[in-house]
Design goal:
Blueprint (H helix, E strand, L loop, with lengths): L12 H4 L1 H12 L4 H8 L3 H13 L3 E8 L5 E7 L2
Helix pairs in contact: 3-4
């Protein structure tokens, strides 16, 4: 089954980056937070968060829910739209 999404011309560059491709692949398989992606990819959280934000703004991924760890911050969970 194929799912099509519309991506604006200005957002095409997101798909050309190998790290973004890996993040999208992980988000297709599982719902994840930026913290989960950071741990899985061994990349700085700011780099991961910026890419997640860019992908969300481009409608490549979507926000699913928030979860809160006891004594910790509220984490946003994302899923790929592809």
């Amino acid at each position: 089954m194929f799912v099509y999404t519309t991506v604006k011309k200005k957002d095409i560059h997101i798909f050309s980056d190998p790290l973004n491709q890996k993040m999208i692949e992980l988000l297709i398989r599982n719902d994840m937070t930026p913290l989960d992606l950071m741990k899985k990819l061994n990349k700085p959280i700011l780099s991961v968060w910026k890419r997640v934000n860019d992908m969300e703004n481009a409608n490549i991924i979507k926000f699913i829910k928030q979860k809160k760890k006891i004594g910790g911050p509220v984490l946003r969970v994302y899923r790929a739209r592809l």
